[in-house]
Amino acid sequence: HNQRIFWECYQLDRYSSTTLGRPFAIADHDIKVDLPSRIALDTPASTGTTSPSVVSPDLSVFIYSVQLRQITSRIRSKLLAMSSNSHEHHRSFMATGQIYASLHKFLAELDHWRASAPRYEQPTCLYESQEWYDFLLEKDKLFLMRGGVNILFKSRRGVSQDIMRLWGRCAT
Question: Rounded CA gap, 149 and 48, in Å?
């Protein structure tokens, strides 16, 4: 239960900090708590009850959501680090290449996250539907692209047509 509570607080911190434009309260490098197991924690043996009505929850959607927050946390931290570099660094050719490399690395990581989505034959709620995962993927790709394009515009090197097309697809 403690693991689930911690990771729920982690998600709430990521949402509220991003929405308010504030730093994260929980630094990723300080976290020593494992994700909860996909195996049920609410079994009669673990709760000390013998009631047959205790049902084991499936944590797949929760864990999958936390994994996305971990990726977007790394994205936000990287974007902040790249945008806070000196003005001269923004003008260098190498900085532009690093920005493009970071964008593509994170896009691949987001695509990998999406490909590993849990699948449900009969979704019982929005969070089990494949359309929900598609929406989250495009929303977070758009977040990444906005930050990357902003940094590229600051570098005065311009933005490639490939990046602009990808940005447009995410926005659409």
Answer: 54
